[in-house]
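Please produce the structure of this protein holding zinc ion.
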Amino acid sequence: MYYLNEIPTDEEYNNNVKRRWTQKSLHGRHPYDLSQQYVDTEASNKWLTKADLFAETVGFFTAIQDQVILTRNYKKYILKQPDTDELCRRCGKDSETIQHITAACEQLAPTEHVKRHYGLAKTIHQKLSEAAELIEEKSPYYKYTPTNVMENENFKLYWNRSILTDKTIHFIRPDISFMNKKTKAPF
Ligand SMILES: [Zn+2]
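Below is the modeled complex.
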């Protein structure tokens, strides 16, 4: 509780919350990661203001980023339940951590990780096609299906299409290729 003459400014309040968060020994991993020099903090936090999510969804995502959800690794080492089998429930090969689930599990890689990859690529494709005025209709991202070849006077936008190269390049089928026809510059 604050007395009237002690009401903190927004900045003081935010700094105070941030300080308390980073000092918690089990939490604070996400703010620590965000504070690294190579991280664009503003871009990394944009989803908090732009995505229009429910507060509980934001809370859940933040807990995942902070690695404080009930993985087997968390149960065994943080909650100190030594009898817990720490191996991943899907592949049974590695310790079930957030990093393993989101980026390394060999069972999830060909299914959920690919789905996530294309979901993101589709969203980028949709934004590019709107910006280049290649489509007129705006549809919700989950209903959008990219067209393989889109072209107008100024731009070409390809989806999942092999491209011809002068030199031998092994991976010639990018998810997205976008070309400014006037300048011939790829984006
Ligand atoms: Zn796994």
